[in-house]
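Section 4.2 – Deliverable D4.2 (structural model, holo form)

The reporting period included a commitment to supply a predicted holo structure for the target in complex with (2R,3R)-2,3,4-trihydroxybutanoic acid. Inputs used:
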Amino acid sequence: MSLLARALSATAICVALTVGASAEDIQERTIRWGHLNNTDHPVSQGVQKFAEILLSKSGGKMKVREFAASQLGNELQQQSALRGGTQEMLSASTTSLATVIPEFGLIDFPFLFNSTEQADALGTGKFGKAMLDTLPAKGLTGLGYWGLGFRNVTNSTRPITKLEDFSGLKLRVIPNPVYLESFSAFKANPVPMAFGELYSALETRTVDGQENPYTVILSNKFYEVQKYVSATNHTFTLNIILVSKAFWDKLSPTEQRLMREAYEESRGYQKEQTRLQTEKALAELQAKGMQYNAIAPDETDRMRKAVQPVVEKISANLRAETVKLFNEEVERIRKDVK
Ligand code: EAX
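Output (structure tokens):
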């Protein structure tokens, strides 16, 4: 064998070994990923993109099975399945984590931001990262966030154009103290309820209305059972991509890296799908017969003032260090991010 041939075959052995070693690091895995939205919603498109990337990076070994539309139960049920290790992944609003880690409730303070970019920056910044670090103690791992969107109120009674229009309206909210107290401060009558029960509660008039991003209102056909859509833009919901820690700890470092990469690489696509669908959704809701109204900036200011005592009261009961970081981040983002 010539020197060159020998060198080449040595290289070939090396390459084969490297591939072989990392292939052993990747097992056949089936990852059950549950969420609340329908398969036409940008959340589902994000899950599908993540699945596609992970499958290809793992040489076909790591498969994601999507369970959309609350098929695996409501958020809290799926959260405990992750903690118990009987379900591998969940993407849900950070809102529902506030019952486990109250500081997540900070994200739901009304009127924090004016743009998707600003809300996004909260997730990718120091506060968002610090909150991910609180999860392992609760049996969860967080890969990061997706933006669900700005929330707007729909109801079947009247358009909301001013603070007083909330008065007495029974509005379903995500079970979370910030939402309950904020809508009480608006003098509405907030009713905590799982998302999966919402359509029929609207249909039977158990509640008068609800609040969600336009894409969620459209995908879930709430226009069939709601007349008015008012651009309150009161909060921006971040979704969090959760993995069962029991499952995560079984993964090899290579598998964990592929999961992180699949999240990082699907993020931009998911965000773009949200942007595209959000752009179209309001016009579609109007085409389906909903009556739309904007809110005058003065009225938004009155709503902001009405909810200020709630912000102060809840902040006072959370970890001071986290509240401080949150306030610094909000201030930085409002200044630096358009
Ligand atoms: O995507 O429960 C809710 O209202 C949430 O916005 C839900 O995740 C819908």
